[in-house]
Amino acid sequence: MDIDAWVWWLIGAVGLGIPLVLTAMPEFGMFAAGAVAAAITAALGGGVVAQVLVFVIVSVALLAVVRPIANRHRNQRPQHRSGIDALKGRSAVVLERVDAGGGGRIKLAGEIWSARALDADSSFEPGQSVDVVEIDGATAVVM
């Protein structure tokens, strides 16, 4: 029983797909795509040299193009914080005395917020600058 070359290339592609699934390394998928391209070349009547060249060229091209794009997307962090997350870490000015009991007011990002101190023994007087640690409902927790 003589198996055609394109079948061997497809078996190789499946063999390369197994570690792709098990290890989640996309490089194996790129090599598997190269093997599929070589199988197509073999099915169209290309010789062994042409099959190997197609496998190498497609695999290397995918590695050279797809891998840097994937790394760039993986390393990107959200650039813009919005909502409550955008207020954390910002400075504010105390308008009314702020202590741990609440009831104080600060001006944060151009708006008036109710505020309370993070530490029980801390208090801040009007005019002082404070840092927003977190937002608890409609109250800014400052220090």
> Tell me, what's the shape?
rod-shaped
The Cα radius of gyration reads: 31 Å
The CA-CA distance between the termini, in Å, is 80 Å
Query: Could you state the oligomeric state of the chains shown?
Result: single chain
Structural class: alpha+beta
Helix content: 40-55%
Number of helices: 4
Mean pLDDT over the full residue set: 89
Report the biggest beta sheet as strand number plus sense, adding barrel if it closes: 5 strands, mixed, barrel
- In sequence order, what are the helices and strands, one letter per element? HHHHEEEEEEE
Give the uncertain stretches in residue-range form. none
Strand order of the largest sheet: 1-3-4-7-6
β-strand amount: 15-25%
Give a count of the beta strands, DSSP E runs of length 2 or more: 7
Structure description:
This protein is of the alpha+beta class and 143 residues long. The protein has 4 helices and 7 strands. A 5-stranded mixed β-barrel has the order 1-3-4-7-6. Strand 3 (104-108) and strand 4 (111-117) form a beta hairpin. Helix 1 packs antiparallel against helix 2 and helix 2 (26-43) runs antiparallel to helix 3 (48-75).
